Amino acid sequence: MSPVENQKSKRRKSALIILSFIFLLPLASPQEEYEYNIESYSIYFDIISDNTVKETIEISLTANTNFSRYVFYSDYPVENPDAIVKVNGEMKIVNVSVSKVIGGINAVYVKLPPVHPGDRVDIKLSFYSSGMLQDVQNKKQFAYYIKFSQPVGVFYVRLFVPRGYAILSPIIPSPDMVESSENRLVLEWRRENIKAGEEFYFIVGFSGEIKGFSPLWLIVIFVSAFVGGFFAGVLYKERKGKEKVEILKSDEEKVIELLKNGPILQSELVKRLGVSKAKVSLLLKEMEKKGLIERVKEGRSYLVRLKQG
């Protein structure tokens, strides 16, 4: 083989290698890197009174980079926050602070000691809040909405309903478990392999305090909650159910009337409609699917407007 032919052969091989690299590059590109991987994310809601809920969040994560702060965002007021943190199993003293950000969102800052790649961090954050409990059609309704910005291994929720309250419809989604604990009713949900952007709505109705409460009531509540939760979950997933459709239709009309005057922040819609944040989020998601409105990200909230055309 002549030196010229040999050079051409080398150039062809080099060109093939470069082309192969270009075509394979999208396949080999790494996934989005997060500061940490969240193995588990648990939320416990303890109803203290008609207006107050104690919220406890337990997070287990593994660091991918160096960081020294964890931030939790809440649509609801945050009072008396407190945190316990373990880094690689060792208890650490931390500072917790709260501040308002865009859209009236509360940011809870947990100041951590320096965390390095590979470190395991366990955070337990507790605080008191209001706004999750509302009076709807002469009964109480608990409503909560959460959207994850990154993948989570296991997501776990527990709602503790105090002694003397009966669970009523709606129960969305259907709980994975209902049990009694220390004369309290406990509803439990568990989900695995949560994807970034995945969102969850929790809505539970219950009556006012029952006089002359007895363990027999607990059995009745258990059965009714399980059966009611199953059917409510089916209605939620299939978007069928006459009562729900009628309510949404009425609220859709209210939203459209408000938006005729121009775009509105989602947090402002909650105030004007006078319903829970979870219900407004669910309603707007439905309207967006129908092509009635569109939502544009505005900081931690959304700017809602009528769909053009």
Characteristics:
disordered N terminus, Immunoglobulin-like, 29% helix, 309 residues
Notes on the protein architecture:
With 309 residues, the chain is an alpha+beta fold. Helices cover 29% and strands 45% of the residues. The chain contains five helices and 18 strands. The protein has an eight-stranded mixed beta sheet. Strands 9-10-15-12 form a four-stranded antiparallel beta sheet. The longest helix is centred in the first third of the chain and has 26 residues, at 3-28.
Q: Give the end-to-end Cα distance, rounded to a whole number of Å.
A: 68 Å
CATH class membership of the largest domain: Mainly Beta
User: How many helical elements?
Assistant: 5
| Low confidence ranges | 1-8, 15-30, 210-222, 227-249
Structural class: alpha+beta
Radius of gyration: 25 Å
Order of helices and strands: HEEEEEEEEEEEEEEEHHEHHEE
Strand order of the largest sheet: 5-4-8-2-1-11-14-13
Number of domains: 2
Please give the CATH architecture of the largest domain. Sandwich
**Biggest sheet, open or closed, and with what strands and sense?**
8 strands, mixed
Number of strands: 18
Helical coverage, percent range: 25-40%
What does the oligomeric state look like here? single chain
| Content of β-strand | 35-45%
CATH homologous superfamily identity of the largest domain: tricorn interacting facor f3 domain
Mean pLDDT: 77
- CATH structural fold name of the largest domain: Immunoglobulin-like
